[in-house]
C-alpha cells in the first residue's frame, strides 16, 4: 500500500501534488479519515491479495481531505469520518451520483496515558477540569475535524465545554490528538474507540453516551473522476466480509450490507 499523508497547509498541499506518484489505471486511490489508518492497512492486504489492483491511501483529517478534493486532488474514493464533509462534496457535484453509502459508525471515548488511571463516569457532574489539573485535554480541531466536532458537541451537551475550552489542546486530526496523550503531552484526550484499539500506549477510562453528540457515521463514495474497474472493485470489497472483519477488529461497527 502506498500511503500518502497530506499536510493541511496550502504550500505543502501544492508540494504534495508535485511529488505524488502518477496514478495508474490499475491503482485505486482512496482518501480516508485518519482514524481509519489501522483498518485501511488490514484492508489493503486483503484487497490487493484478492484482486490485481494496487491500493493508494491518503490519510488525514476529513476536512483536510475534502478541501484537497475540492482543489482537484487525484482521488477515486473518499471515506469521511462524518457526513458533513461528504455533504459538501456532494453539493459541489464532486461525487459519482448514487455511489454514496453509510459504511461505519464509531464511539467517542476518554483516554489517558497512565494504565492505572481510575475509570471516569462521564456525566454533567464529571469534574474533568479537576482531573486535568494544570494539564491539557487533547482533541482534534473542534471546529473542523469530525472527532473534535463530536467531542465539543458532547461536552457542550454536558455543560462542561465552557469551563474546559481554555485547557483544550487541538490537533490536526484525531491520531495526532491521541499522540499528545500517548507521549505524555496531555494527561487526557477525547478520541474514537477505534483509535484507542490501535494504540497500546493509551487506555480508555470513559465512554461518551451516543446521545451526547450527533451520530458518528463514516460515509464512503466514489468521486466523479475517472471510471475504472479498480474503483468499482474496491467499493465492492468495502462491503464484503473480509473488510467487515477488519473494521470490527479495529473497533468500528459496520453499517453497510
TrEMBL record:
Signal peptide annotation: 1-25
GO MF: metal ion binding; molybdate ion binding; tungstate binding
Pfam families hit by this protein: SBP_bac_11
Residues holding molybdate: 35, 62, 147, 174, 192
The organism's place on the tree of life at top rank: Bacteria
GO biological process: molybdate ion transport
InterPro entries the UniProt entry points to: ModA (IPR005950), ModA/WtpA (IPR050682)
GO cellular component terms listed in the entry, alphabetical order: outer membrane-bounded periplasmic space
UniProt keyword terms in alphabetical order: Metal-binding, Molybdenum, Signal
Family from the record: Belongs to the bacterial solute-binding protein ModA family.
Description of how the protein assembles with itself and partners: The complex is composed of two ATP-binding proteins (ModC), two transmembrane proteins (ModB) and a solute-binding protein (ModA).
Protein name (Swiss-Prot/TrEMBL): ABC-type molybdenum uptake system substrate-binding component ModA
